[in-house]
Design goal:
- By secondary structure, the protein is mainly beta.
- The protein is 6% helix and 46% strand.
- The protein has a five-stranded mixed β-barrel.
- The protein is elongated.
- The two termini are 28 Å apart.
- This is Cell wall protein.
- It comes from Streptomyces graminearus.
- InterPro entries: TAT_signal (IPR006311).
């Protein structure tokens, strides 16, 4: 799942994966937005659950409520979605928004058959450090290392924070040359990113 962006996706949700999880839904663990995915570990709400299982890979097949996920080493893992599974794909969505080919992080409880019953799933989430190279009305041209990247500004979803200030939908302070952190959802079809939040000067 590294792709052209050179993103080490396995390391992105380590903090979330280390937090305890029980099948109560991620909202009970403090939310499912992009910030929550990278938040510090939280203790399990259920003392009977000693640790969470964590799967990251690409969805190769969907059968009912079961996702067949191919991990970076080529192994297959099954992720079971339940009525308590919370799903993030730029925003909180239903399981129907998950598509074959999507990158996926799942946190949950390992079942006796080796599958994981997920309490939280993040689809195509990315955490990138970029430089702004161009600004248009509905998109930003960014560089991530040596790679060019298009970041889509999504109406009523994209927010910005400047120098530690409050989140705002007003991106007028953004300038070419700014170094920024982008949290968002990767688009597998064209390797672009829908921006959830861009932070400058943190």
């Amino acid at each position: 799942m590294t792709g052209r962006l050179g993103i080490d996706r396995r390391s992105l949700l380590t903090s979330a994966a280390l937090g305890g999880a029980t099948i109560v839904g991620a909202s009970a663990l403090g939310g499912l937005d992009a910030d929550a995915a990278f938040a510090a570990p939280m203790p399990s709400l259920d003392p009977a659950v000693s640790r969470s299982s964590f799967i990251d890979g690409r969805v190769s097949r969907i059968k009912g409520s079961t996702l067949d996920v191919v991990e970076s080493d080529g192994s297959h893992r099954l992720v079971q979605l339940t009525n308590a599974t919370s799903v993030w794909k730029l925003e909180t969505v239903t399981a129907e928004a998950i598509e074959t080919g999507d990158g996926l992080y799942a946190r949950g409880v390992e079942m006796p058959d080796g599958s994981v019953a997920a309490d939280a799933v993040w689809v195509n989430i990315v955490n990138l450090y970029v430089t702004v190279r161009g600004i248009e009305r509905s998109r930003l041209h960014l560089s991530h290392g040596r790679n060019a990247l298009v970041g889509h500004i999504v109406a009523k979803r994209t927010t910005a924070s400047f120098r530690g200030g409050a989140l705002t939908s007003d991106l007028s302070q953004l300038r070419i040359g700014h170094h920024a952190q982008v949290l968002g959802a990767w688009r597998p079809a064209d390797d672009s990113v829908d921006i959830a939040r861009i932070s400058v000067g943190h």
